[in-house]
Structure formats: structure tokens, C-alpha cells
Design goal:
The protein contains two helices and seven strands. It is an alpha+beta fold. Helix 1 (22-34) packs across helix 2 (123-149). The chain is globular, with a radius of gyration of 16 Å. A seven-stranded antiparallel β-sheet has the order 1-7-6-5-4-3-2, with helices on one face. The chain has one domain (2-149): START domain (Alpha-D-Glucose-1,6-Bisphosphate, Chain A, domain 4, 2-Layer Sandwich), CATH 3.30.530.
Amino acid sequence: MRYEHLIEINSQGFSAIPAFTREELWRGLLVRVYEPESFPVGPDDSEWKEESPGRLSRIVRFGRLEIHDSVTLEPMQRIVFDAQAREDMAAMRLTITLEEPAPGAMVLRFVYENDTAISAAEAPYEDLRHGAWLENDRDMVRTLRAWRDQGRLGAHGTH
């Protein structure tokens, strides 16, 4: 299974919405890694441990549900979340990549993937799952925009 979408962050030549710097956007993405519970639709709690430079392990809690994952950081470029399989969930990978397709333009590419084939019983729910991922990622970007406007993603911001 593979699902991919882009969210435009800065539009080339469109100045109605203040542009993010790459550094501000990266700082915001790091909040998703280190403090995911800070997001309105985030987990209830999380904890993390650095395994090596640029790699950490986490436990992310949604009520009684615990997701164990590892996160790999490629500074200012990409974050890869590898969620471990559970009895009721296949292993899953989410890769978020910062891309600048043209001067003044910036997008985030989200790629969700796992090695599990979709069963006939699950197929009707696949669009719902994709829609939920897209809306969650849009919500994250809306939150990052609000934090940026509040000055929380600057060099001396609180996140």
C-alpha cells in the first residue's frame, strides 16, 4: 500500500499568505517529532529517546493505544516515521519531505506506505483512511501557520 499527497506551503509569486522560511517549517515539523501532543489532533502523550544522532525511538499514546515507532531525521530535508507492527496494525512508514520545486515555492510531500496488500474487505475503507491522513496533515500545516504567526517557530520560539 502506498498513498502520497502534497501540501503547498509557499506559492511562487503569491504573497497573500506570509511565506515560511525553510528553518521555520523544519522547526514546526520537529514539534511533530518531539511534542506531537502539542497539535490539536495529536496524541494524548508521548515519550522519546535518542538512539543515535538523527535517530530516535518513541512511544506515542492515544488513550490506551500505544504506537511504538522510530524516527529518522535528515535535517532540513526529510523525516521518516517507522511505526512498528502491532497485533491489530501492520508496520507503517510515513515520510515527510520538504521540497522547493521553484524559487519561492515550497511543498511538503507526505508518503504513507507499508508492505501489506489491501484485502477485499478493507478496500471500501481505503479512501476513508487516505482522507483522514490528508486532513490530519492539512491540520498540522494550519497549526504550524498559526504558530508561525504567533512567533512560536522563529529562532527563539517556544517550539
